[in-house]
Every structure is written in C-alpha cells, then in structure tokens.
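So, could you explain the following?
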Amino acid sequence: MSQKQRKINQALGHKALNMYQIESRHLRQSSELITFQPPEQAAYGHKPAKIYVEEENLLARIWKIDFERKVGCMNFASPMEPGGGFLMGYDGQEETICRNSFLYPELKKFNQSFYELNRKVPNQGYFSPNVIYSNQVKVLRDQSEGKILPYRRFIDFASVSAPNITYMKLRQHPLDFRRIQADLHEKILRTIRMFKNNEVEILILGAFGCGVSQNDPYLVAQTFKQVLDRPEFLGVFKEVYFPILNNKSALNIFNRVLVTPITKQEA
C-alpha cells in the first residue's frame, strides 16, 4: 500500500471518529464480551439458509441488503489492538469496517478484558475464544469510501480473532491441526449462536483468518459448513454471504465447499 493511500485511509478513519463524538449521545449501539459458549437452542424451522460466496467488497454487500432485514457481520478482529492497523491507515477487513463505521469505539471498551489479555497470554497464537458482540453499529459509507451516506444503516458485529498460523511459525510453536480446527469451530459456533440469539436474519461472514494469519481456506470453509449445517440453525437465517476479495484461492475453495448447485442456479 502506498503512503498516499494510508494517509487517505487515516483521514477517513479520523472523520468517522469525529462523527462518533458528535453523535454518540444519540446512538443506541452497545457491546458485550461473550466469555462462554452459548447453549444450543431449538431450530426455528426446517429450511436451511441460502449461502452465497461472492467476489465483492464487504461494504458493497452491506448496502445491497434490504434495510428491513437485521444483518450480522463477522469482524476478523486483531487479538491485540482494537481495530488492528486502522489508526495507522492500514487496510484489511477489520480496518475497512472501522474506518467506515462506529465499530472502533465499541472495541476500545474491551482494551483490558480482551486485548490486554491477549497481549499477556497469547495462548501459543490461538488467543482468546471470546467474542465482542456489538449491537446496531452505524455504518457510514459504501464500497466507494467516499461521502457519508444520508441513509441510516445499522449492523450487528461479532468481533473474534482467528488462530494465527503466522504467529505460531515465527515463534516455532507446533502446528496442531486438530487443535486449530477445534479452535476455529469453537469461535465460529460461538459467533453464529450469538447472531441467532440476537435475531439476526442475514449473515455476512468471509474467509476468516485466511489472509495474514495463514489459515488453510479449505479447513476454514469446512468448519463454516459444519457449523451452518447444524440442525439448531434450520430456519434461523434467510441468507448467508461470504464476500471475499483479493484471495482467488480462498474464493474458489469456499465456493466449492459451501455453495450448493441450487444456489448456483439461482445466482
């Protein structure tokens, strides 16, 4: 990324923070740290969600969804810094969300209970399984990241950190793929159950941990499939989207693992 683009990203982020300061008294957004696996609850029906894997920008997908639907988006959270490299103008899924919404102030609330804990106890690169669940966070811009949009768009975000294979390799920790899969399963299941408990209808997920953390896209896609195929989620979500950009390998693998022939025909 060029220095010029980083400065542009920083300016966008500072604009979002300034707007938050102005609007914070009137916002209804709130957050909680989920420190346990929510219990399984009964399904709502018999129909599985339609799953779509798209080569598209996350913000584009957010604004395409009907405003009447409650949307939940998974944020691939840095385990040690709220918003990752957002304040420095870096780019990534989390940074994109933070500079174009009011999510960052919610993440900062957990500096001690989540981020400082991960800094002190990185757990060999697995980090905490806890989820920061943020209700009704205001989203400001679409994929153009231009002007602030006049429409009111509010999203639930679940922020969770993937196991970091890069970290494990640098510190020469053993790569235990059974443990990695179990960790992914725990975090994804906790996230999806929280979306269900908060009556989310449309999910926006993605290639969780398949970028700088170097998780195997096939393993991640299979884990998402295992979780979404659980009977407890029948009739719960209408549609599930996996927007994936700048990662052709993950895009193809997620398509192969998650998208049914019927969904492909409808697309």
Observations:
- The domain at 3-266 is CATH 3.40.220.10 (Leucine Aminopeptidase, subunit E; domain 1).
- The radius of gyration is 18 Å.
- The CA atoms of residues 1 and 164 lie 22 Å apart.
